[in-house]
Amino acid sequence: MTDFDTTRDCALALDRKDSLAAFRGQFNIPDDRDGRRSIYVCGNSLGLQPKVAVETVTEVLADWAQLGVEGHFKANKPWVKYQKNAATGFASLVGADELEVVAMNTLTVNLHVLMATFYRPDVKRRKIVIESTAFPSDYFAVQSQLLLHGQDPAECLVEWKPREDELLYTEDLQKILDEQGDEVALLLLPSVQYYTGQVIDMAEACRIGRDAGCVVGLDLAHAIGNVPLSLHDWGPDFAAWCTYKYLNGGPGSVGGAFVHERHLDGDGSNQLTGWWGHDIKTRFKMAHHFEPAVGAERWQLSNPPILALAPVVSSLDVFAEAGFDKLVEKSRTQSAYLRYLLAENFADQVRIITPGKDSGCQLSLVITDSQMNARGVFRALEQLNAIGDWREPNVIRVAPVPLYNSFEDIYELSERLREAIEANEQA
Length: 427
Description:
This protein is of the alpha/beta class.
């Protein structure tokens, strides 16, 4: 275990030992403000811009300008198969075969596209299990799928609820399925819970769902690029993710999807179909008989927005260069360092609700002093150019990201938190 202390020298020493320190220079860091450099710890919401993304988008724009429609086949990276440039990176980060992943759409669209295949209620199995504290978009997606299939959400939406410590326990999920499993068609579960930052035991959750005969889907929005994943081995039926958080793909960037290999056969009759999901070998014959593409690409509907996918491809190249195992190791050290500073400096004022052994980059902080306005502390941090984010009702989320955050960033975050608390005490 690394020895820490509360001095800036400790942070600087950690940075000197950091073999990944040079990657910070590959990202555009937000500007200084009022003489204070930016401390950006909001990669759990929107990752920073890789400098190479600018070059990649510029290349696509140049191909468009010079080639027009011929860019589909003659661009440096032909647009007709551009999504394949993300397959290797996606597969590596989620622990899957390349045929099981595809870059397409955005997260909630992908959840709907996949649930159109995998949520097939019958007389007996109609219910969907979702965490009660799910991000609203997931909750809305499940509600609407139930309604579209003629089911009453009040009866068929089953909530996996956290305990008093705000954490989810797989024992409670097991109890739900012990009692209602023969009525449950689908589990849609988080991988990392967005509010608390808790990493769910996904292998166990998938096992529980499979043993109960349920379809299992995972939302990897807060997991991909953050924590190790092994989708193929865990065996969920499907998964979906966004790419603008830890994958640094930019606001609204193209998302990704996983479908386990056991579902990659068939004629496409069990899914929504579109032209881009047609086998590329015969796609341009313009026939009206659907021939599924190979692998998860058969779930594509339209040709991908190349300008929105280019930054994703660029960022995945950066991940490959850095090595994800090294990034995870650094992230764990950074989280341990931040936990140490918070415990040493704010033991009576700040509580971390993110569990110690089940976390990634994100730590969710609660201001415990009842006399203090937690939202005021967050706003003061913003004024001090320390950028995290706020989640109702009372959590400040911060996420040091190993690709571009230094240990000195973490030290400085602690110092600015002290200033923000002191300013709030005086207010």
